[in-house]
Write a structure and sequence with these properties.
Blueprint lengths: L2 H19 L3 H4 L4 H8 L3 H9 L6 E3 L2 E3 L2 H10 L2 E2 L4 E2 L4
Antiparallel strand pairs: 1-2, 3-4
Helix pairs in contact: 3-4
């Protein structure tokens, strides 16, 4: 076995280990406030105002707010209306 093939085996082993360790790419997708607003069907201003008021779940990357798919789902669930009670359910 040559050094080059040993290095290639090591690289392949590292790739396989990282592939097993890193979650699938869609889970890593983060959205800007503008992208989140588009997904939610609201204006970017609506999203920005609620970020400043800390009324929406989000993650700060450095000093920039970002939204994961989980955040987007939580926001949509925050406004869910139960037809039996006709009341808006709000997160605690």
């Amino acid at each position: 076995m040559t050094t080059e093939s040993g290095g290639e085996l090591l690289v392949e082993a590292i790739r396989e280990a990282l592939t097993a360790w890193v979650p699938p790419a869609p889970d890593l997708q983060l959205y800007t406030p503008a992208q989140a607003a588009e997904l939610l069907g609201v204006t970017e201003n609506w999203v920005q105002e609620r970020i400043r008021a800390r009324r929406l779940p989000f993650t700060l990357i450095g000093r920039f707010p970002r939204f994961s798919a989980r955040h987007i789902l939580a926001i949509t669930e925050m406004g869910e209306i139960n037809p039996a009670t006709r009341r808006v359910t709000r997160a605690a």
